[in-house]
Design brief:
The structure is a homodimer of 380-residue chains. Chain A has 380 residues and is of the alpha/beta class. Chain A folds into 2 domains: 169 residues, Rossmann fold, CATH 3.40.50.1970; 180 residues, Dehydroquinate synthase-like, alpha domain, CATH 1.20.1090.10. Helices cover 51% and strands 12% of the residues of chain A. Chain A has 14 helices and 10 strands. In chain A, strand 8 and strand 9 form a beta hairpin. The first copy, chain A, is globular. The two termini of chain A are 38 Å apart. The mean pLDDT of chain A is 94. The interface between A and B is medium-sized, with 30 and 30 residues.
Chain lengths: 380, 380
């Protein structure tokens, strides 16, 4: 195998671990922290709880509230202005992928200057970022683990992928208690996002044993725990979904992703769709497209999804993809693009833009814009 | 589950990755690096290759050569004197556990002052260490991944366990090519060491899913690859042993170890034995002792060792332990203490000292000195 990297933030995992936020911020030299979250978490009381913990450590703070479901370039620049004006020194994000990616954007711009567009692509961040502490409130995005940030360029209507070792936070504090206020939709869309991370990174052309082990564990944990989590909010099932999202994050952060994410980014920039909506539609079809390039690996996934091997590698692989489609139906997600977006004519442009997304580089089967379009048309 | 941490160095893995040492040292701000290795690696040419790579990056260097197979307190203090005298700024270790643990000791003393004995135990290192880059030359110790350092206190005849987040190096550069010059004995003793890390950390009282996944993968990879590695030096098998040692390191660094390592440290301080000699004797007996406290987990290990489940959990667990004993015999290791040490009367004192080793805290079944002695007597 070629030379591979594997890196992670320091992870603190467990119910109640949120209480360590203040002491970690102090360890990282904080005097005034910049906090990013979102209105939903303000309403459910988690933001005021976090602020209380921060104040208990005698830290000052400034709060940036207005993050969209897909964070936008101008929000990053507003946040950076606020960070500078308030002389903040450590970035704390509480939330799903959006507040965390927004926080990464702010940390990048305040330390490296310019605008967030300057850093679109891989390894373009050169100066060290201020310390970052992330508290994921969903079991899905993996942004608290990963080297990725996804920010929407509003002018170009594209979700930019920023990939850099510097975008991994210093500390990820994963407190599964925060999932207790999530509704069914959020639990499903987050789990589906984590599942897509695991599947795409598992078959990535730069996957290796350390990432593959995590990806397979994530797939198993999600499939075993999603129904108990939805039905009874069983704390162990919720905790296992958190572990799954973390493991999937460890995998995709180091092995990258594939065509499903490349299209999801492009589509999300155009229609403001979230990953949780797009993946159930797209993932099985992308897996079918990739199947000839990685049959054994798809069969390994199939064996987990089906709970057994079928009579041949090809059948196990195919059977796993079919069963995954059924699982998405059972979870009540959309299974056709027509259910979530209203304009089929945009797809040629969306697929053209997807070919420029860094995630497509590691898809196991090369894909042109025409091939991506054909995938999308099959699930229109 | 309680709150758990999971942290790792940045890992660079792959054949030829040694060449990145210079650029990582530069990234970490090096001007003059302090290099630790051992006579075996000097003879096999790896030290001069490393020095060449360092010089190619226009870095100055100073070399400390005289590391024992079990690094000693006075060597750490000599190394620290040399580091200070030469105004080094980054520590690079090339070797097995001994040069790496020696390097950790030097980094601790030069940044935190005093003597190495001041830091025996858990979390006693308070000031940041100089940056450390480690290149493991064996697939075993896991010191390049772990928060542990083992240093012999010559006066007290005890191997001290130092455990601290600060003891994880910044970067671990794992180049499986370095295994090509290892002889059979080194490959076996390293693999056995990694296997013991995996087994003990898997059943540790503070294990959690992220560590358990790595531990199970490590056990599987070692058992699948040790024979091909020995027979033909198959590069893929050698690479898999490296991955296994890394995975086992990820597990034990975060979940700690158990009674087998507690006794091995105490015994090693007294008789200067290495882990690779002690574990094949001790591990199966410690597993038998622990069995009643963690039957399901022992059965999971048994299923991997045997390649199948037997008719009950208890039988699978027991069968796995028996098979492991046979595997050690097939690998030609000692299976009785009488083969490696010459004085049975020292064991009461050794077991008394083992009860004060930090590794015993996480053993799944509590053990008094008398119970440890009974384990040792069974394998005299």
């Amino acid at each position: 195998m070629d030379i591979r990297k594997f890196s992670l933030p320091e992870i603190i995992f467990g119910r109640g671990s949120m209480h360590y936020t203040g002491s970690y911020a102090l360890q990282l030299g904080a005097k005034k922290v910049f906090v990013v979250s979102d209105p939903g978490l303000e309403r459910s009381g988690w933001v005021s709880k976090l602020i209380e913990i921060i104040e208990d450590s005698a830290l000052r703070w400034v709060y940036y509230a207005n993050v969209s479901a897909n964070p936008r370039d101008y929000e990053v620049h507003q946040g950076a202005d606020l960070y500078r004006k308030e002389h903040a020194d450590v970035v704390i994000a509480l939330g799903g992928g959006s507040p965390m990616d927004m926080a990464k954007g702010v940390a990048t711009v305040v330390s490296n200057g310019g605008i967030i567009q300057d850093y679109e692509g891989a390894n373009l961040i050169t100066s060290p970022l201020p310390p970052m502490i992330f508290l994921p409130s969903t079991a899905g995005s993996g942004s608290d683990i990963s080297q990725f940030a996804i920010i929407t360029d509003v002018g170009r209507r594209v979700k930019m992928s920023l990939i850099s070792r510097s975008l991994t936070p210093n500390v990820s504090i994963i407190d599964p208690d925060m999932l207790s206020t999530a509704d069914d939709d959020l639990i499903v869309s987050s789990a589906v996002d984590a599942l897509a991370h695991a599947v795409e990174s598992y078959v990535s052309t730069i996957a290796h044993t350390l990432t593959e082990t995590q990806a397979m564990k994530a797939i198993l944990l999600i499939l075993e725990n999603i129904n108990p989590a939805l039905k009874t909010r069983d704390p162990l099932a919720m905790e296992n979904l958190s572990i799954a999202a973390t493991a999937a994050g460890m995998s995709f952060s180091n092995a990258s992703l594939g065509a499903c994410h490349a299209i999801a980014h492009s589509l999300g920039g155009f229609f403001d769709t979230t990953h949780g909506m797009v993946h159930p539609v797209l993932l099985p079809e992308v897996m079918s497209y990739n199947l000839p390039a990685c049959e054994t690996k798809m069969a390994n996934i199939g064996e987990i999804v089906l709970g057994r091997k079928l009579s041949s590698t090809a059948q196990t692989a195919q059977g796993g993809i079919e069963r995954l489609r059924e699982i998405f139906v059972e979870l009540g997600t959309a299974t056709r693009f027509r259910e979530i977006v209203n304009d089929e004519t945009a797809f040629p442009q969306i697929c053209e833009m997807a070919t420029r997304d860094a995630c497509l580089l590691t898809n196991p089967r090369p894909a042109t814009a025409t091939e991506l379009l054909s995938i999308c048309q099959k699930v229109w």
